[in-house]
Design brief:
The chain is α/β, with parallel strands linked by helices. It folds into two domains: 251 residues, pyruvate-formate lyase- activating enzyme (Alpha-Beta Horseshoe), CATH 3.80.30; 46 residues, no CATH class. The protein contains 14 helices and 17 strands. Strand 4, helix 2 and strand 5 form a beta-alpha-beta unit. The longest helix has 17 residues. It starts with a strand and ends with a helix. The chain binds S-adenosylmethionine and iron/sulfur cluster (SF4). Iron/sulfur cluster binds next to loops.
Length: 367
């Protein structure tokens, strides 16, 4: 097997669980310990003995990796640098929440070689931030952004969310304009998803929140219009980047490349298998320190699963898919072409502007 080039580390701690979020996270600091950091490194050391690892991208996500305290980061970074050869590294991302970044932490990460911060702003509007149950204000988010710039990170991504209950077109336009004034290298603009087992899902099914597909489409159109006209390339349905500043890690993931995930709930994808670690920080730490396996589920990656994923992710990318992949569905392709939802050139098929609004339903027709 070729060396593994993409590593993900799941840091499951957040200052407060947001009511719309379905990631595996923990509030508070009970399990946020040096033992947890040691467990992560033990898992990495174990993987280094089993696989050849030559990292091109590292991604610390969560949760909120910046929830770790400065001394916990120091411990983690020292051990990481001792375990991994980082000489081939091209991108190192750390996700951050505006409530959890102080200048000392930002400087530590920048000096260690973190090249990209992904900052969860979500909105600059105080009402939207309250609706989302965020722990930070817009003012705090501005200050954190300034702190990150001063620390000298070469790339900063800003995460935004639209279709939030109560959000109007002018409110979203103002969020986009404020973001553009900061000229981030990358913007992720996510349409709110009502995920099962979240407070938001209960409010939707209980009738307290109502979805408005027409407004969702207008918000998405406005996002594309404002960001593309400001020089960002819409390289994936929810992602926009300045030239050459796509997320290399996420691109590898969408292209179905092999990667290893560390930490509770983290997935690893290998040529024939996908595994997931146990979604429980205390159990994960205990298992690692006892020399046990942290994996709790395994799925065989058949050709059929690989193909489905390639189609679903490929359609979301601006370069689209090679036409040959969709050859078995030629009549559906013609149908979508007639509806103006897909277009093709000599070798590739991609979604049109209108098709992007219906990306998931279109992908379902092929898989
Ligand atoms: C794992 S979070 C990382 C950032 C950090 N934890 C924070 O929230 O500030 C990644 C991003 O996913 C997005 N996200 C989370 N839940 C979502 C949902 N239900 N619908 C749409 N986007 C969501 C948010 O934009 C969030 O910033
Ligand atoms: S959105 Fe971010 S801060 Fe909120 S619970 Fe999810 S991971 Fe944590």
């Amino acid at each position: 097997m070729a060396p593994i080039e993409h590593l993900y580390f799941h840091i499951p701690f957040c200052p407060k669980k947001c009511p719309y979020c379905c990631f595996y996270v923990e509030e508070g600091s009970r399990n946020k310990t040096t033992a947890f950091v040691d467990a992560l490194i033990l898992e990495l050391e174990k993987a280094s003995r089993s696989y050849s690892i030559r990292p091109k991208t590292l991604y610390f996500g969560g949760g909120t990796p910046t929830s770790l305290l400065v001394d916990q980061w120091e411990h983690l970074l020292a051990k990481l640098q001792r375990t991994l050869d980082l000489s081939t590294l091209e991108e190192w991302t750390v996700e951050a929440n505006p409530a959890t970044v102080r200048p000392e932490k930002a400087m530590l990460l920048a000096q260690a070689g973190v090249s990209r911060i992904s900052l969860g702003i979500q909105s600059w509007n105080e009402t939207t931030l309250k609706t989302l149950g965020r722990v930070h204000t817009a003012n705090q988010a501005f200050k954190t952004h300034e702190t990150l710039q001063n620390a000298g990170f070469p790339e900063i991504n800003i995460d935004l969310m639209f279709s939030v209950p109560g959000q109007t077109l002018p409110m979203w336009e103002s969020d986009l304009e404020t973001t553009l004034r900061l000229a981030p290298s990358h913007v992720s603009a996510y349409c709110l998803t009502y995920e099962e087992d979240t407070e938001y899902f209960e409010k939707l099914t209980g009738g307290q929140f109502i979805q408005n597909e027409e407004l969702d489409a207008q918000l998405f159109e406005l996002t594309m219009e404002r960001l593309i006209s400001s020089g960002y390339r819409h390289y994936e349905i929810s992602n926009y980047a300045q030239t050459g500043r796509d997320s290399k890690h996420n691109r590898a993931y969408w292209e179905g490349r092999n990667f290893l995930g560390f930490g509770p709930s983290a997935f690893s994808t290998l040529p024939n298998e996908r595994t997931q670690n146990v979604c429980d920080t205390a159990a994960y730490t205990r298992r690692m320190l006892a020399g046990e396996d942290p994996v709790f589920s395994r799925e065989v990656l058949t050709e059929e699963i690989r193909l489905k994923e390639r189609i679903a992710f490929g359609l979301r990318m601006d370069e689209g898919l090679e036409s040959a992949i969709l050859a078995p569905w030629e009549s559906s392709v013609i149908h979508f072409e007639e509806l103006g939802l897909v277009s093709r050139d000599a070798s590739r098929i991609r979604l049109t502007h209108r098709g992007k609004l219906l990306a998931d339903s279109i992908a379902e027709a092929f898989v």
